[in-house]
Amino acid sequence: MATDPYKVLGVSNTASDKEIRSAYRRLVKQYHPDRNPGDAKAEERFKEIGKAYEIIGDEEKRAQFDRGEIDADGQMRGPFGGGFGGGAGGPGGGFGGFGGFSGGGFNPEDLGDIFGGAFGGGFRSARPRRGEDVRGELRISMEECALGTRRDVRLGDGREVSVTIPAGIEDGKTLRLKGKGQAGPPGMDGRPGPAGDVLLKIHVAEDPYYKRDGRNLRVTQDIDLRTAVLGGKVHVRTPAGTVALRVKPHSDSGTVLRLSGRGIAADRNHEAGNLLVTLRVVLGTVSPELEALMRREAEAETSD
User: Fold this and answer.
1) Which of 36, 106, 149, 195 has the most CB atoms within 10 Å of its CB?
2) pLDDT tens digits along 203-230
3) Confidence of residue 118 (pLDDT cuts 50, 70, 90)
């Protein structure tokens, strides 16, 4: 005979639904096969826990068990053992003693199903159920967003899952990791149900340097007055590393230069974006010679 489901989960028969659910989750975490590989006793305990929760984790089945209508395996008790409650009553009394069929909800076909299951070739087994989904959030940098990344994420039950984050993922996008969620409660035959999924919401952190523009990234690059006038090279930071960028002579603030393929990385459906560099001329340190030259030019313009 199966063990009392309340005792299996370590709760009293007056426990709330929340207390039962909490006990179940704690025990499933403790005896999960992934955490006890090759441990036959832990596997058997895991099945026993699932079977117990199948009964008292379900409001209707728990009520039936408490009334003595079903046993710890979820099977209907025999009709002659008193498990169905009172007798048939007097004439016209019907089957009011059956807890599950009292009142106007009685259906003769339901009664046939009960006796058919009890005497017609064995009891029916409950099917295993799908496990619960696990939800979480993950914050990544703009550079990780641009190139794509791989992260190991620790779940609430202590497990770690590895998640691949594709390049160019949008802020607020939810990734689904199929079969990585809670284990499915087993059916009466001990077969585990399919596991739920992990639903991971991705947040892309704002970056003071990079600004996203579709598959492109925009940055602002300061250059000094000499480089703006004479041209030269400046070093620009990109998600994949620092590169040298040539600035043409007489480049003014607001000039936009392009570094091809240095934006959001390519994937199967998109080409790599570009890094768009907006130049900003900063005065920097002015040499006495330059200042004197500009004064002479200003005085000449004034005299004219």
Assistant:
1) 195
2) 999 999 999 999 999 999 999 998 999 9
3) very low
The CB density around residue 110, as the number of other CB atoms within 10 Å, is 13
Report the residue count for the chain.
Answer: 304
* Residue-averaged pLDDT of the chain: 81
| Token reading at 104 | 């106007």
Measured distance between the N- and C-terminal CA atoms of the chain, rounded to whole angstroms: 113
Cα atoms found within 13 Å of the Cα of residue 44, Cβ hemisphere only: 5
Helices (H), the chain: 5-9, 17-31, 40-56, 59-66, 108-119, 142-147, 225-230, 288-303
CB 236 within 8 A of CB 224: no
Angle, vertex CA 37, rays to CA 32 and CA 38, nearest 5: 120
The pair of structure tokens assigned to 72 is: 């710890």
Q: What angle in degrees, to the nearest 10, is found between the helix axes of 59-66 and 40-56?
A: 90
Q: Specify which residues 36 forms β-bridges with.
A: none
Element (H, E) at 42: helix 40-56
Cβ contact 155:198 at 8 Å: yes
